[in-house]
Specification:
Blueprint: E1 6-15, E2 18-28, E3 33-37, H1 44-52, E4 59-64, E5 67-68, H2 74-79, E6 82-85, H3 97-104, H4 112-120, H5 122-125, H6 137-150, E7 155-159, H7 167-182, E8 186-190, H8 194-200, E9 203-208, E10 211-217, H9 223-230
Parallel strand pairs: 3-8, 3-9, 6-7, 7-8
Antiparallel strand pairs: 1-2, 1-4, 4-5, 9-10
Helix pairs in contact: 3-6, 6-7
The chain binds adenosine-5'-diphosphate and magnesium ion.
Adenosine-5'-diphosphate binds near residues 20, 41, 43, 45 and 46.
Amino acid sequence: MTNDTLRIDGLHVGYRGARVLHDISIAIPPGTVTALLGPNGAGKTTLLRAAAGLLRPTAGSLRLAGADVTRWSAARRARHGLCLIPEGRGVFGALTVRENLRMMLPARAPRSRIDEVLDVFPDLRSRTGQAAGSMSGGQQQMLALARAWLTGPKIVLLDEVSMGLAPLVVDEIFVALDALRSTGVSLLLVEQYVDRALAMADTVHLLDRGRITFGGPAAEIDRDGLLASYLGAPTH
Ligand SMILES: Nc1ncnc2c1ncn2[C@@H]1O[C@H](COP(=O)(O)OP(=O)(O)O)[C@@H](O)[C@H]1O
Ligand SMILES: [Mg+2]
């Protein structure tokens, strides 16, 4: 369908000749959540980085809301509505919460947009003057989500946002993700908590050694087979 928010077709990606992703095709319709699951080293981060324009594919194409963005820079894709929340949060620790948010405010957006976003993240509102790096891991991840929210994205790609966080904090993150989804934003979610990802996702893609081994509705996945492939990773 041409109205997919993100459409990846026949994508091949590698690092200095070592091929990591083979013939990846994924279509993400507007307002849907796609979980990208698979064991360590499968290529999940590589796929998100390629989708965001940080890595050049050796073959294949990417479309973002109808536009062929295969040759677009990461910055241009971001302006067109693609937001990556990278592994390790991607906030500037030495800057305050408010400075982090200002940096992500699109050029033509009014300052009041920051206040609107702080309404969604009340815990951040009381910390706007605090250095981001002095907050807890969960608060920093909320800031990363708030920055994504601020850009008014069409799709947010999330790389293991719950990594290293306490279960209660992970709950809060998923509430925020649910709220983001309810505004019509599409999500592509890489997540080690498989059960939480499956509960939220409309569609699941399994990645194993650089290839998609399953793609379909979350309800149809062979959960036990999936968990076996993770060899003991936390799942809930
Ligand atoms: N910068 C890099 N240079 C070379 N190889 C890399 C680089 N980043 C990742 N790889 C390799 O690509 C493969 C996929 O890694 P990655 O995308 O990080 O997997 P995942 O996120 O699923 O754990 C691994 O074999 C990894 O060693
Ligand atoms: Mg990774």
